[in-house]
Amino acid sequence: MATMADVARSAGVSVATVSHVLNDTRPVLPHTRQAVLDAVEELGYTPNTLARSLVTSRTRSIGLAVSAISNPYFTEILQGVEASALEHGYSLLIADPHDDPRHEGKVVRLLHERRVDGMIVAPSAEPRDLVAYLARHRVPAVFLDRIVGEAEAGDASRFDQVCAESAEPTTRLVDHLAGLGHRRIALVAGRPGLSTTRERITGYRHGLAAAGLPYDERLLVHGDSEAAGGERATAELLSLAVPPTALVTANNAMTIGALRALRERGLSVPGDLALCCFDDFAWADLFSPRLTAVAQPSRDIGAQAVRLLLDRLAVPNRPVRTVRLPCAFVHRTSCGCPEQASRLSEHVSGPPGHASGRPGGAHAKANERTLP
Question: Alpha helices of 180-226 — where are they, by DSSP H?
């Protein structure tokens, strides 16, 4: 097996110069750099990552802690994180906290013990211990998907965060259903305590208010962000003396649960109940009817999280940033619209009626806020 000394001899340079080229620790003349890289290629030299980490105090690895990795939304985020990490020469260590604060603490400690250079975490609904641990140990970290405020954890203001817009796209769904004449519009909301849940409830209520519809607390049921919870919540809504005529589900898992509850009762979409959902997914277009949905820029969220983390590693004292990415309203037929009227995707980054009309939204400019 070739050594660094072999590379140095082949390239006609010192071992120190080879080290500077491979580790980017000092500028090297272009022709010298190329000679070293050619020698590395010719000899098949593989750097000793462990030895290098002992010298540089960097492992060039990132810890990723996200729950429900089997969920297509988080799977796409993972793909965005992995692609961006590899592009910048970082490996990825992945753990699933299962949305359990105690398990979250364990996996974050394990990732820290593996000496990752930084972490990307989708926080649980009770993030105070997580934030305290990361702050106490000065672990560079980025929170994704769920925003953590000072009310949930006082030290959260020292961490960068990235997520999709949640309130305005939910308002857009309610606005659309109200525009179709629905007056009893229900929401199956996510797990209490998550910022995504709070924001989508806020968007739901804003949509009702904008349409001149009263808020009825019986029409808002939590499905805990899971398929079984979505099924239970939908069954509860359908059992009301006056059930809703339209339903908004606040994530893709709960959408599956809602469809199961409707099927078990022999009800059809949109004939018996109009349906719009937050989270588009690969097979949403294959359902009959096709699902009208809000599509989140999941891969971009993952890639943006890596960029924020690498910026933090490069400049530890830079101002803290919170980045929100716009979503897209994907108009199909589960809302009750005819097929010919539903072939539309609108970029959603503002109040109803202000969509840009651009398809997708995954590559739209983020709304970035810098904190002091």
Answer: 195-210
